[in-house]
């Protein structure tokens, strides 16, 4: 099977018609970037189901990297998420369900925080002179964080990370995301890269 990178974004929620996390990546489906086939998936805003879909796709496609995207309505920046935490907020999903627990992994030895394995500094450097970008220390406690935490908690070898995008970007967001994905693909192809 051809080497690939898996990108995920969410369906609309909160009464909105679009979700920029999916709109910004959907046109990359089937493209080849640095010899990596790009696979794009839209995830439901449903507790547990979103993470389960990503984990199943990892098993199916064996991607070299998994990059999850979500919306951040409070930010005008592309936010590079550094960590996920073992917490859920008591919010309803698109099926009007509340989370089954406020703790994602209830095992007594579960880590409270898990960290992105993307080379965030390289991504930041590829964007900073063109687009608004910042590091973030919290992916929230909604579906974005839950999905990020569960995917990081798998024992698969892929590079994994999460990026939040603005709800109403004042710049060409799809182009910015293509730059991000191109940088990740270049890092994967670099024999001296530290992310593999």
Provide a descriptive summary of the structure in words.
It is a single chain. The protein has 196 residues and is of the alpha/beta class. The protein has one domain: Peptidase C15, pyroglutamyl peptidase I-like (Aminopeptidase). The chain is built from five helices and nine strands. It has helices at 20-23, 49-61, 120-127, 143-152, 173-189; strands at residues 4-10, 32-33, 36-43, 65-72, 78-81, 83-85, 113-115, 133-136, 159-166. A hairpin with a 2-residue loop joins β2 (32-33) and β3. α2 (49-61) runs parallel beside α4 and α3 (120-127) packs across α5 (173-189). The longest helix is centred in the C-terminal third of the chain and has 17 residues, at 173-189. The radius of gyration is 16 Å and the shape is globular.
């Amino acid at each position: 099977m051809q080497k690939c990178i898996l990108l995920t974004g969410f369906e609309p929620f909160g009464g909105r018609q679009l979700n920029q996390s999916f709109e910004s990546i959907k046109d990359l489906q089937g493209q080849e970037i640095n010899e990596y086939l790009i696979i794009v998936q839209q995830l439901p805003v449903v507790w547990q189901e979103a993470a389960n879909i990503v984990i199943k796709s990892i098993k199916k496609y064996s991607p070299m990297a998994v990059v999850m995207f979500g919306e951040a309505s409070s930010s005008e920046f592309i936010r590079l998420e550094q960590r996920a935490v073992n917490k859920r907020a008591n919010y309803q999903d698109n099926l009007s369900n509340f989370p089954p627990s406020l703790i994602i992994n209830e095992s007594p030895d579960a880590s409270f925080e898990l960290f992105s394995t993307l080379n965030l500094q390289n991504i930041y450097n590829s964007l900073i002179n063109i687009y608004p970008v910042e590091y973030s220390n919290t992916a929230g406690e909604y579906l974005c964080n839950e999905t990020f935490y569960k995917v990081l908690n798998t024992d698969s070898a892929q590079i994994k990370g999460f990026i939040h995008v603005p709800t109403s970007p004042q710049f060409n967001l799809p182009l910015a995301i293509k730059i991000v994905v191109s940088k990740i693909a270049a890092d994967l192809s670099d024999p001296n890269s530290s992310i593999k």
